[in-house]
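Late entry, evening session. Most of the bench is empty. Finally got around to the prediction I had been postponing all week. Sequence below, unchanged from the version circulated by S.P.
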Amino acid sequence: MGFKLTSKDYADYLSRVTDFLATKKDYITDLDSATGDGDHWANMNQGFQKLKEKHDILASQSIPKMLLDTGMTLMSTIGGSSGVLYGSGYMSASKALNDAEYIDIDNLYVLLNNMLKGIMDRGDAVPGYKTMIDALYPAVSVLKHDLDNHEDEIKTLNDVKQAAVDGAEKTRDMESVKGRASYQLNKGVGHLDPGAVTMSYLIVELMDYTLERGKQV
């Protein structure tokens, strides 16, 4: 397939995932209301709508500058801890891709892996804490496994999608270690973590966009 995403491609993806998140308002709000403040969707929507407004600016920047601007925008516009975590993740990815001219399959791993590192370091959290990490970590792990084993790119991107979805689903049975759900008697057990669900949406939409873009190469 040999895809190479440009800054414009990534800006297009960000606009696309923003539109998708908008369709999930009631579902995510209900999820968050069960274990938290019920404002996760509103916070995420606010940040990503701002990215959509900045589409043309982001599309005209270099890859590292675009990722940095994305992180700074999310950090300043998403309320609650999610803004700081997403911002830290994108800023970490920007540093790691400092010389990148495009995002291919190898740079996709660098991007997602360094987002994961940035989020884990800033949030002082690890897989199993019932957070957004529980969707991102398995996606990164599968991506590295498939790259190491020289799997076909189409298979790899689909594997990453499934790993993110499965990871989010597994939070249903986890006890929350951080956040408001951790103060509940049942630690949120029986409920999906809304942060993991929205992270899975972002990963799935990125993989789908990349699969579609790859067909045009």
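Two things to note before I forget:
The chain has one domain: 7-215.
The mean pLDDT is 94.
Will write this up properly tomorrow.
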